Amino acid sequence: MAAEREILTWDLFGTASRELATTIAQDGFQPDLILSIARGGLFAAGALGYALNVKNLHVMNVEFYTGVDERLDLPVMLPPVPNVVDLTGAKVLVADDVADTGATLKLVRDFCQDHVAEVRCAVIYEKPRSEVKCEYVWRRTDLWINFPWSDQPPVVDAPDAVLEA
């Protein structure tokens, strides 16, 4: 029997992102830019950008997960790393799909901390073990989450295989 999981469908993602944006707006936080943690955070950041009328979206690539509940020892920033000049003095909303251990969010938040006017974090899901307690969370869970964008296997082999050809 498969382990119980939290299932986020595309339709439910639409509801989740809209409710998360409403919570942020009702709190009075008006970010100057949204910093997405790729890859899962791209979806959340895009939806929040539209809902909060924020056109300035940045991306930070961080590798941490290698499989279902498998991860590297520490998250690693991948190039290109955002230029801190672009963040200086801004109110930044860091967006990701999940705060699991919180290590990725902590890395990104700490990267921003000394350069921005304010940084807050928004996630669709937060797990109790997360070392970062996000200001904005749609739902809390202990379960592994199936996201609609990563629920199916890739339709092509690993990108490295394409580069070697």
UniProtKB/TrEMBL annotation:
GO terms for molecular function: glycosyltransferase activity. Residues 6-150 form the Phosphoribosyltransferase domain. InterPro entries: PRTase-like (IPR029057), PRTase_dom (IPR000836). Keywords: Glycosyltransferase, Transferase. It holds the Pfam family Pribosyltran. PANTHER family: HYPOXANTHINE PHOSPHORIBOSYLTRANSFERASE, HYPOXANTHINE-GUANINE PHOSPHORIBOSYLTRANSFERASE. This is Hypoxanthine phosphoribosyltransferase.
